[in-house]
Every structure is written in C-alpha cells, then in structure tokens.
Amino acid sequence: MSKLFVFAALIILVLNTYSQSPRTAHDHDERGRDRYAAGDYAGAIADFTLAIDLSSRITGDRDARARNFSTSDDSAEEAIVRDRIRVIDPRTAVSYVNRANAYFAISDIDRAIADFDKAVSISPGLVEAYVGRATAYLIKNDAARAADDYGRAIKLDPKYARAYVGRGMVRLDRGETGVALEDFDYAVKLEPKNADYYCHRGDARRITGDPAGALADFEFAIKLAPTLPAAYLGRGTTRFNKREFGPAVSDFTKAIELNGAYAEAYKNRGYAYLALGNTAESVNDINVTLRLAPRFRTEIEANLAIIRSWKR
Fold this sequence. Notes:
This protein is mostly helical and 312 residues long. It folds into three domains: 1-142, Alpha Horseshoe (Serine Threonine Protein Phosphatase 5, Tetratricopeptide repeat); 158-226, Serine Threonine Protein Phosphatase 5, Tetratricopeptide repeat; 231-312, Serine Threonine Protein Phosphatase 5, Tetratricopeptide repeat. It is built from 18 helices and no strands.
C-alpha cells in the first residue's frame, strides 16, 4: 500500500477541551500538541502521559459518566467495559488518542494500537480513535480489522471524510474497485478542497485504468496545494504509464524538490531516466532510493528488467 504512510501522516491530534479537567491536565495536553507539531515526539509523549495520569484521577457520579460515552450503539461487551471504567473525564480518551498518534510518528505501532484501544474503551464514540487504530492496523497488514474500524467510524459519523478514504484504500487493495471509488468520491464530496483526497482518488483511477480521470484529479490537487509532493508523484506516475517519460521526470523532480527524502519519487524518476536512456541518472536515483527505502529492492529489480526489455 504505497500511499499508506502519506495517509498516516495526515492524522490530526484531537483538540477537544472540557472544563471539568484540572488546568494542569489541560496544560500538558496543549503542550503535548505543540511538541508534536514541532516534531518533539518524545516530549509530546511525556506530556500526554501526564495529561492522562492527571485526568484519570477525576471521579464523578454515574450520570456524568454516562454523558461522556457518546454512542447509542454499544455492544453488551462494550457496556460492561464502560461500567468498569472509573475515568469520567473525556480528556483522558482524547489524550490517549494524541499519545497514540505520537507513538505512530516514531513507528511504535503496537503502543499506538494499545492507546487507541484504551481510548475507545473509555469513549466508544470517539471517531478519531477508530480511524487512527484502523490506520495502525493497515500498517500491520491487518486489513480486516482496519475495515471494521473504518466502518465503525463511518457509522458513528457518516460525514467523517478520512474514514471513507481509509476504507477506500482497504477496498482498493482487495480489488473491490467499484466500492473503493465510491468511498473516494464521497470523501471528495465531503471535503472538496482537500488536495490529499484527490490524490487518493487519482491513484485509484490510475490503478483501475482511468488515466484521464487520474490526471484530472492530480492536476486539481496541484491547483489546490501547489506544494503537495504526492500530487506531482501521482501525475508523474500517470504520465510514465502513458510513456510520457520527459514530463514524468519533470513531475518526479518537482516532488523531490518539495521532499528531498521522497523515496518513491527517486524510484520512479530512476525508471523514467532509464526509459529515456539516461543510464547514469537512473543508477544514481535507484541508489538514493535504496538508501532511503531498502524495502523497494525486489520491486526495483523486477521493474528495471521490464523497462530494459522495452528497448529490445
């Protein structure tokens, strides 16, 4: 799933605040979000942990606890779990989601999933927790659980666009192209100015044999967000598949200018250079790709052999 990490990087920290929290928990949660935004993930994790510890000490009556679980469709098992919970401040669930996203950022996927689990146990209506956990499951190649969580998020909030994008990615991987495109279409309809969603739909259209539709999506994404590397990668890949190698090189070069560590852009530009007969440039790009992402080695070897066969 080549676009998964792009999608994962779009996770947004939950910003909800609640007046019954101690101010110190509020402060730690806010500072944790600031540190996360600055790339200080260890510091963010430390602050979110303090926010969790402080907000978890709050107690209250049964009615207050009931108000904090915002779902009308809980299973019996979830109801039992909820009855055992002594944390009544919704900030605790929010801080678990935020800490999970920080773990996600340092590729500690198992701890991220554990925190998402705690968040949905405390607050079964917290849509962001299901979407975050679903994306973590995708990274662990557990598509079934990912699909379940995206579906639950959509059931809780039918207008949560990111959940449709995630479910569309799962469906596309399964070969369910028709319903995958429906999910991407609906996400774009919900957020028509989100360039990332056009990129995801463009990838789906390219994969399903609609290069004209793919190009339209990538070009609109570029119009919306001229500094989005994925849009240039997508357009370049579509052009490469049409054997428009010169324009493809230009797009991949732009993606690299915007993100100097973009392994896929180097890889695809290496293919395009080889197709143009620029062997030295191709070798250089492939070497950079393998330094950045050794996981591509087998794929690269197969694709280079195919491109070389075009010249015979």
